[in-house]
Amino acid sequence: MSFALNGPSELLFYVNGRKVTEKNADPETMLLPYLRKKLHLTGTKYGCGGGGCGACTVMISRFDPGTKKIRHYSANACLLPICSLFGAAVTTVEGIGNTKTRIHPVQERIAKCHGTQCGFCSPGMVMSLYSLLRNIPKPSMDQLMEALGGNLCRCTGYRPIVDACKTFCKGKNRDLAVLLWATDCCQSKENGIHCLVQEESELLDSEQGNGTCEKLFQEEEFLPLDPTQEFIFPLN
Fold first, then answer.
1. Between 46 and 176, whose confidence is greater?
2. Are residue 55 and residue 110 in the same domain, yes or no?
3. What's the pTM value of the predicted model, to 2 decimals?
4. Beta-carbon neighbour count of residue 113 at 10 Å?
5. Measured between alpha carbons, how far is 152 from 57 in angstroms, rounded to an integer?
6. Domain span at 69
7. Number of compact structural domains in the chain
8. What kind and span of H or E run contains 20?
9. CA distances (Å), 19 to each of 24, 39, 101, 185, 189, in order?
């Protein structure tokens, strides 16, 4: 690697485990157009272009020399200059799984739980959840809601997306938490009372298929989340 007076003149980072080098990189180039136009990774979507919709979410991984640990975090590719990524690892939705090899459990659960309609926001949703799970394999509902806070969807109403995400969560009250959060759960055929005003036991019974609701998926059929199969941070 060659060095200029003020530092390296060659940008080096990793995308989906592959080394990427760029000589004399333009400091105004953002990661999103670089991924889509230079690397042809079009799974990362261009939405608002201002960091507001989350469609371009990717995962950035960096080695923290202080803690000697790898830190993973989600980021909006439309706001991230490539020159800020020296030594970092970028993971896009193409990198975690695909239909030609094997889809990732996050992708599978969002699909089987009917968490997509137009699908434009889905890659960003997937990567936000994936980034959370790389740090916390068994998140709480609060951590899940915070992780998805920067992702907008204009089709599904969020309920099926959260239904998929909650399958990774811990805690006995996760089903109730989702039902209380949702605004589009089913109504009682008997008295027309909305689920949000029913008793907790009725809410849980409905979610488990004992009441008026029926489950659209069986959690035991999902691919298990196996952290040992994820990308290893490249050290050279």
1. 46
2. no
3. 0.78
4. 23
5. 11
6. 11-96
7. 2
8. strand 18-23
9. 16, 12, 21, 46, 57
